[in-house]
Structure formats: C-alpha cells, structure tokens
Structures
1.
Amino acid sequence: MRKLVNLLVRQDGLDHEEFVDYWLNEHAPLAEDLPGVKKYATSVPADPEKAAYDGIAELYLAADTTVGDVFGSDAGQRVQADTANFVDDAGEILVVDETVQFDE
C-alpha cells in the first residue's frame, strides 16, 4: 500500500501540548475530505521531551491515487494551507510502499 509519512515539527512559539491540540482538533478533521485517502493515522511521542519530532502523520492512499491527486485537490490545498498554523517546515516527508511483515 502506498503511504505518505510526515514527521512533524511544531512551529516556534507553540509548546508540544498546543501543537497536539491544534493538530488533532482543528487540522485532522480537514483530512476527512482528502480524495483517495483510505486511512489517516496520527502518532504522538510518549515522551515528547526526548523526541526529535512532535508527531507522525500517515496517509494511506488508494491504489490508483497519487500524492499529487491528494494535494492538488481543493481539500488538499486547504489541508496544506492549514499546516502553516502549527507545523514548521523542518519535518520530513516520505512516500513509501508499505509491506506488513507481521500483523497480530
């Protein structure tokens, strides 16, 4: 399955709790309208003081969907514009093909 993984760094001026609150309560609901996204998962570090990133966002794409399809859409443009409210550009973005080795 094709997946976009975004390692998120909060903007200067936000503490970790403010970042997480905005991300999960304001930004994440916008992802519901993204075309071709089958699953959206968020992960927050258990110990943010020791983590290099403030969170991980994972978008699972339908087989015939590209990242361009997702973010070229009106909904994708809204999601991207909203990231300026809480995310720093320092994070990493990976587009990967996931292979599950084990699933219990």
2.
Amino acid sequence: MPVFIAHPRSRTMPAVDPRLDHALKQAVLIGLIAVLALPAARGHNDWLGWMPLWLLGMPLTAWWALHRFRLPHRSVAASRPARRRVRTQARRRPLQTHPQRLPRAA
C-alpha cells in the first residue's frame, strides 16, 4: 500500500536539472547585460510592455521557481520581531455641540 503522508525525515529536495539551471542563469546574465548596456532595453515596448520585466524579472522568477521558491536564509538577529515602544493612545478632543455665535449687527 502506498504511503501518501510525507515523513519529516524524508524531506529531501530532488535535484534540479543542471541544464535548465544553467540556461536560466545565462538568461538572467544576458538580460542584465542588455538592461545595463542598451538604453532601449530599459524602456517600454508596445507589444511586450516594460522590457526589464521580461529581460530580468521573468528569468529571475523562473530561476526562483526552479529551486522550489526557497527563501534566502535570514540571520538570527533579523528573525526576531522588532520591539515597539509603548505609548498611550491619543485622545479625541470633545466636539463642540454648537458653534460659537457672533453678535448680531443692527
């Protein structure tokens, strides 16, 4: 009978295809060089849209997805939540029930 529940000990990530990894790295480097060197690559195309998105953003996203969306490791100090200062809540001013009346002129 097959086991469908993954055990915590068996959480090994499968290896990434090195050819696809290499191709995505090359696409990112070529896109980076194009964006830095060619002013037209920093612009907007009527058919494709914003060019740095297609030259850098999409290959980087594909590369990140290839590695199963692993987040970069954070340091221990950065993983602690920031401490907030304790302050009292601001109080509302009482509303005036009627505006101040001006004296009437004759």
3.
Amino acid sequence: MDNTLGKSNKQAIRSDAAPAPIGPYSQAIQVGNLVFCSGQTPLDPATGQIPDQLWDIGRQTRQVLENLKAVLAAAGCQMSDVVKTTVFLQHISDFAEMNKIYAEYFPTDQHPPARSTVEVGRLPKDALVEIECIATLG
C-alpha cells in the first residue's frame, strides 16, 4: 500500500512574520502537497497582542489574512493556492464587513477557496475573527 501521506513526510512550517504558537501546535503542517494552516487571529507577530487600533472587524480580518499569508509564504504557497478556509466570527453580524476584506485576498474572479463560516462564543484574547486554511503546493 502506498502511504504518501505518512508521518515520514510531515513537516512543520514556521514563519517569524506571523505570531508564534502559544501552545502545543504548529503554525502549519505540510504533508505531501497539502499545507494545513492553524487558525490565525489578529495578533501582531512582534508583540503577540492585538494592537489597540485593531479593534474593529475589518482591521482584524486584514491582520488575520496577513498572518495567514506569511505562514503560507513560509511553506512556499500563495493565497491563490488556498483551497479551503474556515472563518470563526465572534459575532455573525460582522460577516458582511469580514467578507468585504476577505474578498480582497480571495477575489471571486480567481476561483476563491471553499469556505465555512461559523459564529463562536469566544476567541483567544477576545479576537473578533480567526481563520484557518488548507492550501496546495504548486
């Protein structure tokens, strides 16, 4: 049996341009030609905190997507390589504003990824949004 997704080709991905993990997880894991990115929140990579100026959903969404972009770049991927995202919102009423910023990173005319969006009770550090993704390598 061909085990191309076995442990032997599992590789952790790390970027200093994205917030460091604050627990027992990797920013991303590459297995074969797939990259599984952990959820990113709007933390500033330098401080590990949400800056005061990021307390609205639009700015937080942009920071989250920039953090994901940095992790993907460390894996050799671009945003256009993303095939699936999951968006976690503290308030589903923020969907329209989040979606406006999200569309800047995943334009509808460029085959945006599949996506699920869910409202959650609370996110780490009281963030308004968290996004995780799966991407393919070239």
